[in-house]
Write a structure and sequence with these properties.
By secondary structure, the protein is mainly alpha-helical. It has five helices and no strands.
Length: about 160
């Protein structure tokens, strides 16, 4: 009976571990998509700005392209928001699964993945580099909203100048 129970526990552990790695993979995929799309929008907006600035003046004929830049920025903000939410959903799922793995299979040993990660985070957050970079940039999630926001702001500014 004991062997059957440990076989069931092994199957449960393998199932939870597989689920954990799956949702972490989904989170990484969302993060990769978000960065690639935002980077692509930066390139597209840069090309359009170069076309507008090519003749050395901004005129009324540049208004349509300026409005397109604004739309690219809006789409970028919406995409970044959507994929940030998707990343966070999968990250939180992974944390819950990791906590379940800790509770069921690791707590009796004294060291859990959660305690190891918490210790590593405390050490990292105490470092000067962490405090300096967080003061400078804030959350990294904000960074992915700032870039499309700057594209939107550039499009609006160019549109106003073109009027």
């Amino acid at each position: 009976m004991s062997d059957q129970l440990s076989d069931e526990a092994k199957v449960r552990k393998d199932l939870l571990w597989g689920l954990y790695t799956d949702v972490r993979t989904h989170a990484r995929h969302a993060e990769t998509l978000r960065t690639n799309v935002v980077n692509f929008m930066i390139v597209v907006a840069s090309v359009m700005i170069a076309v507008i600035a090519n003749d050395g003046q901004i005129t009324r004929k540049d208004l349509p392209l300026s409005l397109v830049i604004s739309v690219v920025g809006l789409i970028g903000i919406a995409f970044a928001a959507s994929y940030t939410e998707l990343y966070e959903r999968n990250r939180k799922r992974a944390v819950k699964i990791r906590v379940a793995l800790d509770a069921e299979f690791l707590e009796q040993g004294g060291v859990t993945t959660t305690s190891l990660l918490d210790d590593a985070d405390r050490d990292h957050e105490a470092s000067g580099l962490y405090r300096w970079s967080r003061r400078l940039t804030g959350s990294t999630r904000r960074f992915w909203f700032i870039l499309p926001g700057l594209i939107l702001l550039s499009g609006i500014t160019l549109s106003l100048v073109a009027l």
